[in-house]
Amino acid sequence: MAMLTVKDLKVNYGMIQAIKGVSFEVEEGEVIALIGANGAGKTTILHTVTGLLKAVSGEITFDGHNLLKTPAHKIVSLGMAHVPEGRRIFQELSVYDNLMLGAYTRKDKAGIAETLETVYTRFPRLQERKKQIAGTLSGGEQQMLAMGRALMSKPRIILMDEPSMGLSPLFVSEIFDIIEKISKSGTTVLLVEQNAKKALSIADRAYVLETGSIVMSGKASELMNDPSVKKAYLGEA
Amino acid sequence: MEFISQFINGLNVGSIYALIALGYTMVYGIAKMLNFAHGDIIMVGAYTVYVCLSSANMPAFAAVLIGIVVCSLLGMVIEKIAYKPLRKASPLAVLITAIGVSYFLQSVAQLIFGSREVSFQSIIPLGAVSIGELKISGEAVVTMAVTILIMILLTLFINKTKAGSAMLAVSEDKAAAELMGINVNRTISLTFAIGSGLAAIAGVLYACSYGFIGPYMGSMTGIKAFVAAVLGGIGSIPGAMIGGILLGIIESLSKAYISTRLSDAIVFGVLILVLVLRPSGILGKSRTEKV
Question: Of A73, A84, A89, which has the smallest distance from its Cβ to B182's Cβ?
Fold first, then answer.
């Protein structure tokens, strides 16, 4: 059975039906990309998975748990972390305090210290700036902090929403390198991206979302060569 | 000498304003609402202690403890019944509800205890302290000491405990806090409980300092504490403290040297002046978003 199953999910955003019956699966260890234009509903799906939005109907199952009946604050301790769009770090707190909030639900002090070390090894910049107020970090560093914060919960699956948004090309490549490393270390990744090219280059499989419905899915390598995907999302003729 | 004793009087009143302002500022920081019923919680606290002392003959310490518990529970209940259902409503609806709760509490107190003020025997066992010619009342000494102690404990609580860091996270970004696994509802509830508990302490200190209690004792005091919170920078805990003390001193000195009748006008005049010169208050910061 898949680690995360979304079945016929329908979500309204205000008066409009934002998600019109979406189904997809994420197997343990995979990197799955959800690609699509701005407004296709990618963020809405992630927000519904982690309980920030309510679904109208459908099913979301993670590890046997019905996520639609789980309050948002209980989801992280099931092993699912969410790096939200726009990073949403705690701007007025220090880098260290942000990271410790990522471990909020954990009680094993030694384990937290160990995870902190691995996060610092993965993001040396965060260690250098651990006492700095998070709001004063650069955009790329804030993205790293948001990812580090999510890793502090030691998740089995990490949901990332537009990690490359607003970053310089150099940072974009660095962020995608890090996502690959996170995946290699055994964490499942569900990645939402507008930068389809980058997303498909590191994903195992991908789903293409258009105005609230999945219009295509398959292996990332195959989608990358699909003429219609090329035309619509990769900027190639 | 006259000046110093007026100044100390200002510190005494200011400490009470500061304790109440802490509740305003904490609730504003976390729930992003102005709880205008907060001032009336001090009245509930004072009456609870009064009843415990006069009808149940309890020792002062136990009476104060019960006052704190009653107010904390009341704060949580008010939040749950009156404010929580409005969390997504317009700020105006919440504001009107808060004013409604304020009148409700005053009316209930009036129904039970009548509208007349009753005298309150100070429970502070400390006599006046004399330093040379200067005499400081025991009430003033205890009020200032308690306020400083609470400020230190509150700062430690917020910066050193998990519940405190949850409060900071919720005050900045509720959804992000929820993603961290923080129970936002419980955190808001806790904030109301702490703020209302502090208001109970302020109510007792007020009653001891002024020697009377009444159903409306919280309304003007509450508004002044709100002014103090805005003066210091609403949302900021040290700001509430500074704003409260400053307000107390301004009020006390203008009563002594300018005019008793004009003192309130001066207090609100200072508020207007500060808001014109520094709209975010003394310690308030205007947040800038980074893209």
Answer: A73
